[in-house]
Design brief:
By secondary structure, the chain is of the alpha+beta class. About 30% of the residues lie in helices and about 20% in strands.
Length: about 180
């Protein structure tokens, strides 16, 4: 397992997703199946993240998107290793988003699964660091495989490998966010 710094990742500008209520609802139904064990335990996941309409509205406020990803050789049974790689990506997403915000660019970021900033989320108690929260891609109604393929990025499952994806949405300094 690798991925220690930003140079290990691919950064690619892509289109902002064109969310539809039917596709977004499919994502939320996947969340409700709770395969990732984050549903109802994390502010980045349903129901804590908010209703689907509000999440879709947040995405529609942005005009630009960047996907950040890294393919790693992994043992899929090594849950600690998978969490570590996910955490590295989330930290990279936070750093990128924070840099954008510090320079006047409105922005937000999403990744697979729940936010892991605190280790153990305070949910349902108030989020301790809402400005550092990384939302769940599925919770925001994005069908990741279709979205990436629409942007020319191959999405595949392979034995012994995992690709970790994150999204950063932003506006230019002078662009007004309108849903």
């Amino acid at each position: 397992m690798r991925a220690k710094n930003a140079s290990d990742y691919v950064f690619k500008e892509i289109s902002v997703p064109k969310l539809t209520p039917s596709e977004a609802s499919k994502c939320r139904k996947l969340c409700e199946q709770n395969v990732c064990k984050c549903y109802g335990t994390n502010w980045a996941c349903p129901p804590g993240v908010g209703n689907l309409g509000d999440c879709m509205t947040q995405i529609r406020m942005y005009k630009h998107a960047v996907v950040i990803y890294h393919r790693s050789e992994v043992n899929m049974k090594d849950q600690d290793g998978l969490k570590r790689l996910s955490g590295i990506l989330q930290n990279l997403l936070r750093d990128f988003r924070n840099l954008l915000k510090e320079n006047g660019y409105p922005s937000m970021c999403l990744a697979d699964g729940g936010c892991n900033y605190c280790g153990a989320c305070a949910y349902p108690k108030e989020c301790k660091f809402p400005d550092q929260r990384v939302g769940s891609i599925s919770a925001y109604g994005i069908m990741l495989m279709e979205y990436l393929e629409d942007n020319g990025i191959e999405f595949r499952f392979e034995d012994g490998y995992a690709t970790f994806y994150g999204l950063v949405f932003y506006n230019e300094k002078d662009e007004i966010a309108v849903a």
